[in-house]
Fold this sequence. Notes:
Blueprint: E1 2-7, H1 15-23, E2 28-31, E3 40-44, E4 47-51, E5 64-67, E6 72-73, H2 75-89, E7 95-98, E8 102-103, H3 106-114, H4 117-121, H5 128-137, H6 149-166, H7 171-174, H8 178-189, E9 196-197, H9 199-209, E10 213-216, H10 240-247, E11 256-262, E12 265-267, H11 279-288, E13 301-303, E14 305-306, H12 307-317, E15 321-325, E16 335-344, E17 347-349, H13 356-359, E18 363-370, H14 387-400, E19 404-408, E20 416-418
Parallel strand pairs: 1-10, 1-11, 2-5, 2-10, 5-7, 6-8, 7-9, 11-15, 14-16, 15-19
Antiparallel strand pairs: 3-4, 12-13, 16-17, 16-18, 19-20
Helix pairs in contact: 3-5, 6-8
Amino acid sequence: MTTAILGMQWGDEGKGKITHLLAREADMVVRYNGGPNAGHTVIDRGEKFGIHLLPVGAFYRNARCVLASGMVIDLPVLREEYDLIVDHLKWEPEIVIAENAHVILPYHKLLEELEGGGSRIGTTRRGIGPAYSDKAARVGIRAGDLLHPDRLCKKLAQKINLLKQTWPDSPEISSLSADLLAKDLLAAAEPFLGSIKNAMPIIAQALKRGDNVLFEGAQGALLDLDFGTYPFVTSSSTTLAGLGNAIGVPCPQIDCRIGVMKAYATRVGQGPFPTRVTGKLGNFLQQAGNEFGVTTGRPRGCGWLDLVALKHAVALNDPTILAITKLDVLSGLDEIKICGAYQLGERETKTFLISAEELALCEPIYESLAGWKQAIRGTTDYESLPRAARTYLERISQELQIPIGIVSTGPSPEETINIGFDRY
Ligand code: GDP
Ligand code: IMO
Ligand code: MG
């Protein structure tokens, strides 16, 4: 049995909560892309965690956790996160780190500042872009290199030489030392050295055995490097197609694909966001939804649901069911708008525009639906939802042509409506 958790918007859809719910029954949870740019919120036995690197399965003894080769891993961040969780759980989760996952080094964060990624795109400044660039340029350090300190030092020295040639005027780059970097890296990685393995056969064997394997995606379809709103995207593949490549196992094996989406839209960082609303309503959504980044604390822009963008995400992720989160946030509104098409100059389009420049010129064409006044936080029964809320959900399902399996009505695991979904 295989399940994938796939973000359908610009990230922060509530993937952490949904992964945590499903991981209860999982034999293995594989985080397959991104790095500590992700922030997946989990409420485990009443305590709140913002998880950046560990697969959320780490909260359960039954789930073996894999950090797959599609990830970029910052070892000091992983260590801090692991220690925090061990302190909470009082036992040590079993993890596997793919030997071909790349490692984020301090110079990646430095390069992000020197190259202006933070200000130009609004990145999370966690070194993600430069680490994936090194991977593509074939000058990256991989987790497997940590098992061979001499090889590690040699590769670091080569990379640092290159950096010194490219940035002769940077005092921070000039002061880099391969030996010191290797020493710090190995110290941070020390508890995990036994966990660095070839993850591909481990995942493949679990699939062959018919284990319950859960694949945890980070970010969302609209942040995909190729099919998102480039250049305002992250540097990894965030969709179902990316999953196969990130784990080295073909995707047709993923039989349950959960498209996780918020009941409205948010985006953090820069880039086009046609349905963004500002002013009183924007503030209302931001406050009611507590829309502040888990990783950076930045306020997230908020807006109405964008069906054009969601249909693009459906095409990319091919979900078999939807998990719609944060429905409770919309309580109290007189009307709820939904965008079914864009106006681009003289032209009306229902097709998402891959070009960020063109998307930025699109005006949303809205339809108005009735809102509802009742608070629904914590509702667990679909029939108890106000009629207008049910109409809204049914409309989304009908437009996207996908059944809804989960509706989330609050951040805690209990605050969930299960609609005939049998996987947790
Ligand atoms: P992720 O990156 O996709 O895992 O999402 P984040 O954790 O970054 O952001 C989702 C935020 O919404 C977190 O603060 C969650 O605790 C919270 N959340 C998740 N589901 C719900 C819900 O149904 N209602 C409300 N009010 N909050 C939710
Ligand atoms: P989760 O997994 C929301 C955004 C950043 C920026 C762009 C590029 O929690 O949904 P990067 O640091 O990746 O180079 O930044 O992508 N971004 C996210 N936004 N949720 C995330 O992850 C994100 N990961 C990256 O804000 O706009
Ligand atoms: Mg997040």
